[in-house]
Amino acid sequence: MNGSDLGLLFLAVAALVAIYLGSCLVHPYQDCPSCKGTSKHRGSVMGGLRLCQRCNGTGRIRRAGSILLGRGNRTVRGNRIPPRTPRR
Q1: CA-CA distance, 55 to 33, in Å (whole number)?
Q2: Does some domain include residue 85?
Q3: Is residue 80 part of a domain?
Q4: pTM above 0.85?
Q5: Residue 81, domain member (yes or no)
Q6: Residue 33: which domain range?
Q7: CA-CA distance, 84 to 86, in Å (whole number)?
Q8: Comparing C-alpha atoms, which of 58, 69, 56 is closest to residue 27?
Q9: Interval 58-81: pLDDT, tens
Q10: Measured distance CA(67)–CA(73) in Å, rounded
Q11: Is 47 exposed, middle or buried (0-12, 13-18, 19+ CB in 10 A)?
Q12: Which domain of life does the protein's organism represent (predicted)?
């Protein structure tokens, strides 16, 4: 690799990071991977449904890029974000 190849590689990585951070500005939350956005998960002993502990029952967690940017710090009902409403 010569200098121009490294410069192009750096520009490509910088562009990908900028696109990801821009996406985090627009969409700071993602579905919770533990409950898959349902806000409930199955208990391990009896298999009953209970609120997800990872997302506090909202079904959503902040993306890593939005944490770095300080986005999505809404305080609604304590430290919970409002749950997503189903589309009609």
Answers
A1: 9
A2: no
A3: no
A4: no
A5: no
A6: 3-69
A7: 7
A8: 69
A9: 888 888 888 777 776 655 445 556
A10: 9
A11: exposed
A12: Bacteria
Domain count, the chain: 1
Q: Residue 76: what pLDDT? A: 47
* DSSP track, the chain: --HHHHHHHHHHHHHHHHHHHHHHHH--EEE-TTTTTSSEEE-SSS--EEE-TTTTTSSEEE-HHHHHHT-----BTTTBPPPPPPP-
Average pLDDT of the residues of the chain: 79
Distance between CA atoms of 38 and 58, rounded to whole angstroms? 8
Give 3-16 pLDDT, tens digit per residue.
Answer: 788 889 999 999 99
Q: Is the dihedral of CA 10, 12, 13, 18 positive or negative?
A: positive
Q: Are 39 and 51 in contact (CB under 8 A)?
A: yes
Whole-Å CA distances, 10 to 5, 6, 14, 16: 9, 6, 6, 10
Residue 88 lies in a domain: no
